[in-house]
Amino acid sequence: MADSKGSMTCGGMCGGKGIETFKEGAWANNPIAIQVLGICSALAVTSKLSNSLVMGVALLFVCVGSNLFVSLLRNRTPHRIRMIAEVAIIATFVILFDQILKAFFPAMSKQLGPYVGLIITNCIVMGRAEAFALQNPPLLSMIDGVANGVGYGVVLAAIGFFRELFGTGEVMGYKLLSESWYTPNQVISSAPGAFIALGILIAIFNAVKGPDPEESK
Amino acid sequence: MNETSAIVILIAAIFTNNILLANFLGMCSFVACSNQIGTAIGLGTAVTFVTVTTSMINFAVYHYVLVPLELAHLQFIVFIAVIAAFVQFVEMFVERFSPKLYFALGIFLPLITVNCAILGASMFLIIRNYTFAQSVGFGFGGGLGWMLAIVLMAGLRQKMRYSNIPKPFENVPIAMIVTGVLAMAFMGFGGMVSIQ
Description:
The complex is a heterodimer.
Chain A: H1 2-10, H2 16-28, H3 39-44, H4 49-72, H5 82-104, H6 106-112, H7 123-133, H8 138-168, E1 170-171, E2 174-175, H9 186-189, H10 191-209
Antiparallel strand pairs in A: 1-2
Helix pairs in contact in A: 1-2, 2-8, 4-5, 4-7, 4-8, 5-6, 5-7, 7-8
Chain B: H1 6-14, H2 27-32, H3 37-66, H4 75-97, H5 99-105, H6 109-113, H7 116-127, H8 132-160, H9 172-187
Helix pairs in contact in B: 1-8, 3-4, 3-7, 3-8, 4-5, 4-7, 7-8, 8-9
């Protein structure tokens, strides 16, 4: 699903390398389903679709911003202090997003609680900065950030959709499963449902990608 | 400011509001390091120690430095800096005074900086407006709760090595589903004590 989106967003503006980078980040090496990184937030905020979407946007914003700046500064950062520099850059963007959320969507900010702040320790952002942005030019790094943000967002939205659907019978206020034949299952919107839903999702990814996903890495 | 005593918060943080099974914090190292009980105990001890101490430091930093200076919005970056610096300090300290413990814990210490359970504990105690005693209780309970969860999981995974799991479910997916069942079991503690 993320594949078609990849060629759409990228268009003809960036060459083959950009499209390849996008596919790699959003699908072949999907941060959650394949690499199993940053799953804390994927579990915590997905009890509702709206929360998942906001979290997806937050990660996209932070990942693009931090990748861009890490990449711009990559030739100036001494190797030994690069980790601290990365954390400082990431934290800056997280604080920015958190402040924007607090100012314009206070209700959403309350619901997400500490999980926006916890993007700082999200292995996806740090991992991309370390593994990609340090070696690649700014534009490509930004594409990589978008790809990983989209890959993360799509997976989160999928989990959020199904958990909200089966947990409450409605999605974003629309009643989809009538109570006459479906009794909303509380467990799915609480903690255990999150773990089980993510487990099943990763298993589906593994099954779709073929018997040995390790080989494609 | 709520009135719950620190002991109640400690118990609640271990059982009813387990930092991993109810708040999903510290999942990365939970999945990666839950293959052996010995490793799990080592990592759990280190996390507990660092969580308690950084909760105390971050509580003090937030209430006596950041709030008076009206810099509360910088809490994220300050907290992570405190945690990173503290872990570095512990590493040097342990290396100097107890080389044996250093080799036992050594490999886990750098991992702890990016363990979101620790940053999460610091953030929860600001959001929930805890007093100092409550913060210590929460940090300690959170660390112990995390340790309990990872040790339980390591035990289960050791047994699971001999079971016949469908191919797509091997490794991470089955670990997730087992964690889900574990979380369900912990929900049974639900009515015992509660913190908001």
